[in-house]
């Protein structure tokens, strides 16, 4: 019998209300410890929590969730108390003195939910992302995963592979049974080709999901005095970087997180790119180039009339936008057509168009009905493994049927590792139910 765990599940005090969660087989001991009756399950009840001496500790809302119909699948209890530090400390202290009770470890409630089959790994990861979501798109992506939408897609794919394997195994091992049709394995390959196409397209969405979850990394680069720091301050709508007319003012990488139309944008201001004998400035330029290599988008700034971008030798997969700056100081006729956009950070000219350019590659996501995309590298790696094994099963037409079935088994395991649920009984269940084998 495992320990019963408890923890403060709401935000840091002080607060209007604090929620303390308890989970475990002995959770109902809380009622005796505080001198209160249990009440009706899953119904909020007002109770007077008492100290060991019978004095009033606090008035609370108490809700019980009997197993298995709870978040963790165990007996669960929630105490909604006043959110003062002294009240929280007193309640936690009383819980710690109950036999077999202990403070929960980080993520332990969610881990018990997974172990008891209440959530799979994809849903657990989505829940973690939902807690940390800071933008609307991050929230929508996390909700899709934590609510089981993405898992449902993976389970549907797993069922298609399981059925294909069942047909192949039936032909290999039970061909002498009267109710097993001969040469049924050829029926599975067209469906698996369609599945491979579906998974490949799904995997391609992983890049967009990564940008939504981790933020679009935008690096502002260019020569000194091109207006990099001024642009960063204007986009951030506050003074993040020091702005002077002295070349080389910015010597380190400055960073600010922005919310643009619900997307997280990680904006970096970097040192001006030039040759210099200043040792400290060279360090800043080296750091700038490292950050450029990591960027999703590079905003390369040049004052209108200059073209220092052609002198740079960037080896990067990032999208590069050549921006002409200080448009307010130049006549419209002087604006070079080689720039993707000309702006003035001082007047705000072109900044709305710049925001549209930054989000042009990911903005369509906001119009989707669902956010069923692999958001984590662990998920994407399992999908890559699945695509590889599924592809081998399809192209190895000269191999024996049992070899191709082995590739399908490995593809199925990749999906099972995705959700954290590996059960060979699924395969046996399909064989016995569909072909009456072993009747």
Automatic annotation (TrEMBL):
- Check the UniProt entry and state the signal peptide residues, or none: none
* Cellular location(s): Cytoplasm
Q: Which residues bind (6S)-5-formyl-5,6,7,8-tetrahydrofolate?
A: 21, 78, 118, 439
Give me the comment on cofactor binding. Binds 1 potassium ion per subunit.
GO BP: tRNA methylation; tRNA wobble uridine modification
Arranged from A to Z, the UniProt key words for this protein are: Cytoplasm, GTP-binding, Hydrolase, Magnesium, Metal-binding, Nucleotide-binding, Potassium, tRNA processing
How it assembles, according to the record, is: Homodimer. Heterotetramer of two MnmE and two MnmG subunits.
Q: Which domain of life is it from?
A: Bacteria
Instruction: Name the coenzymes or cofactors required.
Output: K(+)
Indicate yes or no for the key word Cell inner membrane. no
**Predominant location of this chain?**
cytoplasm
SMART domains cross-referenced by the UniProt entry: AAA (SM00382)
Q: Which residues bind K(+)?
A: 225, 244, 246, 249
UniProt lists the family membership as follows:
Belongs to the TRAFAC class TrmE-Era-EngA-EngB-Septin-like GTPase superfamily. TrmE GTPase family.
Query: Source species, please?
Result: Metarhizobium album
**What does the UniProt function comment say about this protein?**
Exhibits a very high intrinsic GTPase hydrolysis rate. Involved in the addition of a carboxymethylaminomethyl (cmnm) group at the wobble position (U34) of certain tRNAs, forming tRNA-cmnm(5)s(2)U34.
What protein name does the entry list?
tRNA modification GTPase MnmE
- What would be one Gene Ontology cellular-component term for the protein? cytoplasm
């Amino acid at each position: 019998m495992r320990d019963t765990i408890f923890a403060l599940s709401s935000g840091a005090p002080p607060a209007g209300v604090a929620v303390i969660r308890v989970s475990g087989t002995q959770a109902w001991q809380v009622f005796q410890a505080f001198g209160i009756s249990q009440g009706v399950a899953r119904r909020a009840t007002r109770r007077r929590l008492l100290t060991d001496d019978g004095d009033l500790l606090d008035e609370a809302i108490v809700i019980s969730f009997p197993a298995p119909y709870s978040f963790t699948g165990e007996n669960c209890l929630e105490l909604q108390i006043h959110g003062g530090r002294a009240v929280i400390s007193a309640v936690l202290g009383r819980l710690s003195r109950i036999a077999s009770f202990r403070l929960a470890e980080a993520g332990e409630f969610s881990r018990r939910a997974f172990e008891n089959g209440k959530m799979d790994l994809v849903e657990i990861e989505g829940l973690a992302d939902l807690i940390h979501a800071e933008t609307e798109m991050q929230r929508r992506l996390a909700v899709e995963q934590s609510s089981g939408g993405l898992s449902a897609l993976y389970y549907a794919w797993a069922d298609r592979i399981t059925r294909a394997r069942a047909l192949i195994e039936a032909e290999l091992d039970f061909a002498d049974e009267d109710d097993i049709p001969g040469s049924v394995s050829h029926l599975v390959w067209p469906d698996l080709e369609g599945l491979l196409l579906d998974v490949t397209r799904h995997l391609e969405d992983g890049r967009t999901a990564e940008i939504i979850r981790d933020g679009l990394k935008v690096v502002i680069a260019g020569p000194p005095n091109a207006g990099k720091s001024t642009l960063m301050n204007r986009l951030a709508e506050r003074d993040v970087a020091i702005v002077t007319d002295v070349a080389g003012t910015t010597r380190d990488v400055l960073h600010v997180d922005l919310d643009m139309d619900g997307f997280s944008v990680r904006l970096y201001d970097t040192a001006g790119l030039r040759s210099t004998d200043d040792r400290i400035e060279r360090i800043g330029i080296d750091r700038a180039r490292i950050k450029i290599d990591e960027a999703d988008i590079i905003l390369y700034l040049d004052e209108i009339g200059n073209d220092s971008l052609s002198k740079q030798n960037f080896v990067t997969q990032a999208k590069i936008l050549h921006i002409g700056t200080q448009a307010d100081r130049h006549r419209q006729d002087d604006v070079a057509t080689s720039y993707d956009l000309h702006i003035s950070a001082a007047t705000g000219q072109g900044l709305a168009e710049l925001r549209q350019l930054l989000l042009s590659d990911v903005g369509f996501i906001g119009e989707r009905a669902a956010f069923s995309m692999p958001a984590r590298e662990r998920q994407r790696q399992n999908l890559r493994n699945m695509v590889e094994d599924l592809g081998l099963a399809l192209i190895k037409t000269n191999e024996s049927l049992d070899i191709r079935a082995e590739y399908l088994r490995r593809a199925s395991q990749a999906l099972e590792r995705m959700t954290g649920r590996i059960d060979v009984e699924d395969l046996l269940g399909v064989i016995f139910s569909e072909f009456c084998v072993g009747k």
